[in-house]
Amino acid sequence: MKHHFLHTGDVELEWHEMGEGAPLLYLHGGQGFFPDDAFVAALARTRRVIVPSHPGFGKSSLPNWLDCVTDIAHVHLALLDYLGLDEVDVVGCSIGGWVAAEMGTMSPERFGRIVLAAPVGIKVGPVDRLDVPDIFALSQEQVAGLFYHDAAKFRFDASAYSDEKLTTIVRNRETLTLLTWEPYMHNPKLRHRLQRVTAPTLILRGGSDGFVSADYANSFARLIPNSSVETIEAAGHNLAEEQPEAFAARVEAFLAEPQTTKTLWRNAG
Q1: Which of 79, 112, 159, 176 holds its CA 20 to 30 A away from the CA of 48?
Q2: CA nearest 255: which of 96, 31, 42?
Q3: Is the peptide bond before 183 cis (omega within 30 degrees of 0)?
Q4: For the segment 207-222, what is each residue's pLDDT rounded down to a tens digit?
Q5: How much is the pLDDT for 260?
Q6: What's the number of CA atoms in the CB half-sphere (13 Å) around residue 18?
Q7: Is 259 left (phi over 0), alpha (psi -120 to 50) or beta?
Q8: Are the C-beta atoms of 209 and 116 separated by less than 8 Å?
Q9: What is the rounded CA–CA span in Å between residue 20 and residue 17?
Q10: Which string of b and e fits 149-169 if b means at least 16 CB within 10 Å?
Q11: What DSSP element (H or E) covers 164?
Q12: What is the distance between the terminal CA atoms of the chain, rounded to a whole angstrom?
């Protein structure tokens, strides 16, 4: 796996790439990206996978002005500009799915196919009620119960990690809190922009996901033209971690489907 840094504006963006073939942008979830990611390794068997660490995650810097997920989307579009990628497929997990959805509304022509895995980012329920659980108010054990089909298998053990990795894990969580706390896990405007997405879009969720409900995933699909929802069984919210091979196989199959004409965006008035 190759490791790079890109200076774009005043952001120092860490990014990795692995494999050869058609380019695929992978946008990680709230836990961040680590080079031993089995899902990325599976995708890299047939694709050139490009993985930026979101600003504030990994070794990417977080300037003071960058305070929302929409800003992250602009930074990653700058990465695509730097790489000269006029059209690319994208896979985003959780908050990475939110980033991918934002990017799809900003530059619809740039994306061939989009996979959103357990995405957050929209508000669909009453204003006085959260659409997804408040993970910042829960214990690690409670969060694991929401995020995994087999929570015991993925119980967090700090002693298993180096000091450097623990520091990164803590920083990733701090950044996640900063960028998603208020408004909680959504951009109020995104749902009104999703009609601009023109790429065929697959929305995936784990059958045991206690964080992103089936109703929430279906709401995403209703807002994005040419989209569908599927479930991967024996998986929770963190599909890439819990079922990397099954997840990669479904993504690869979707990306390999014959290209269809993109949906033209129409002003709904």
Answers
A1: 176
A2: 42
A3: yes
A4: 999 999 999 999 999 9
A5: 62
A6: 17
A7: beta
A8: no
A9: 9
A10: bebeeeeeeeeeeeeeeeebb
A11: helix 163-180
A12: 47
Architecture of domain 2-255: 3-Layer(aba) Sandwich (3.40)
> What pLDDT score does 258 carry?
86
Mark the ranges of the chain whose per-residue pLDDT is less than 70.
260-269
Q: Which two tokens stand for residue 229?
A: 């929802």
Asked whether 72 and 9 are in contact (CB, 8 A), the reply is: no
For residue 215, what are its two tokens?
A: 């109703």
Dig out the tokens for 207 from the structure: 């059958």
Q: Comparing C-alpha atoms, which of 79, 69, 67 is closest to residue 12?
A: 79
Q: How does pLDDT run across 156-207, given as a tens digit for each residue?
A: 888 889 999 999 999 999 999 999 999 999 999 999 999 999 999 999 999 9
Residue ranges per domain, the chain?
A: 2-255
Structure-block tokens of residue 69: 């997920």
Q: Enter the pTM of the model.
A: 0.95
